[in-house]
Amino acid sequence: MSINVTTLDNGFRIVSEQMSGLKSASVGIWINTGGRNETLKQNGIAHFLEHMAFKGTQSRSALDIAQAIENVGGYINAYTSKEMTAYYARVLENDVPLAIDVISDILLNPIFDQRELETERGVILQEIGQSLDTPDDVIFDWLQEAAFPDQPLGRTILGPSELVKNFSREDLLEFVSEQYGPEQMVLSAAGSVDHEKIVSQVKLLFDKKEPISKAAMISSKYNGGEKQVDKNLEQAHFALAFEAPGYRDETIYTSQIYSIALGGGMSSRLFQEIREKRGLCYTIFAQGGAYSDTGLLTIYSGTSADSLKDLSDITISEMKRMAIDFEQIELDRARVQMKAGLLMGLESASARAERLARMLTIWDRIPTLDEIVKKIDAVDLNDVRHFSDSIISNKKPTLSTYGPISNGVPFNQIIDSLVA
User: Fold this and answer.
1) Of 57, 237, 279, 309, whose CB neighbour count within 10 A is largest?
2) Is 347 helix (H, G, I), strand (E, B) or coil?
3) C-beta of residue 104 within 8 angstroms of C-beta of residue 29
């Protein structure tokens, strides 16, 4: 397997990885912009733009776009995150040029037809409504808002309905002109691909696209806080978060190992203590999420109203214990889980293409797997114990609960239990 990187004169980057034995490929364009790049009045427009990209170009209708890929047995989709927007396809090896042409077309030549805009507006409003009706979706939006209040990182990707109802064609065009410059884009391909052929095609498509003066992303400031909503639901949904390292922080590997050991699988502390021994919940997990300059360690569970306080108390107790009695066997198991997840995840062309794009965007190079594995192996027992202690010592948790919580968990009680 070989990785090749080419940068055009305007900053547009092409990265590819040839994977032997495959007859298919994953190809897409990742754009270094997302919800964090929106102003307050633009909240939700990056996601709206992602939807509209598939609704027609100067040469293809929305149906043409779908049929172009599906007629050859392929798959095309997109997503918007806080810091990235991606448009990608999976096709057979002979159809890679077609996939590149279609994806490039929707980015370079969108028409944003007014009728299609109104139709898609309705679709997005339905998506917002569905999210608000899904407790284990909305609770994470509330958690993010409480952790990073009054700043782009704390706002939802979908945006509020009142803004989505009023986005115009001109608003979409303005966001594209502000954010979709060639230097923000990475075309990534993995599988049965020919790098030189891809570069030749992409040069014809993107070489004349002019760079833009993109506004600097607003730095984040973790605050911590709470949002608790009492509602007559079957379960009380509980989400607790603490500030964690960003992508570029060397302690990111310690943070990931810590989250795996705490709540990353069936052998983790929280799963064993709260679900297996006490039967207080069906689902409980901990996960580390990272951005360019910060991150969140998040713990989530759904439980009965009567069990909410016990679940919260045990969670804090287990976090405090990890700073004292975290064992080598736990470290070894978490390390293996992390490495296995990394390596197994890269068995698909789609995962490879996404990794290439993300690594190039974050590091401006592609770290080798051996380099990452060495960093994972370098994390020792004291690193994890120290990290655990720093999380607890922060004393700035973020709490979000939703459901029958009238007799739930006072926020100050959680803060007090961290220092008790």
Assistant:
1) 237
2) coil
3) yes
Q: Which tokens go with 248?
A: 């570029």
Number of H-type helices and E-type strands within the chain = 16, 11
Other beta carbons within 10 Å of 369: 13
> How many CB atoms neighbour CB 188 within 10 A?
29
Residues 6+ apart with CB under 8 A from 152: 35, 36, 37, 38, 43, 217, 218
Contacts of residue 419, defined as CB under 8 A and 6 or more positions apart, other chains included, come to: 395
- Residue 136 pLDDT > 90: no
User: What's 134's DSSP letter?
Assistant: -
* 8 A C-beta contact, residue 87 and residue 53: yes
Closest CA to 35 of 290, 224, 218, 299: 218
Task: Give the pair of three-digit tokens for residue 310.
Answer: 């016990």
Instruction: Quickly count: other Cβ atoms within 10 Å of residue 264's Cβ.
Output: 24
Q: Print burial letters for 66-85: b (CB count within 10 Å at least 16), e (below 16).
A: eebbeeeebebebebebbbb
Element (H, E) at 256: helix 252-263
Q: Is 378 exposed, middle or buried (0-12, 13-18, 19+ CB in 10 A)?
A: exposed
Residue type, 101: D
Q: Catalytic site residues?
A: 50
Please name which of 222, 297, 298, 285 lies closest in space to residue 252, comparing C-alpha atoms. 297
Handedness of CA 242, 300, 228, 153 (dihedral sign): positive
Token output for 295:
């991150």
> Which pTM does this prediction carry?
0.93
Number of residues written out for the chain: 420
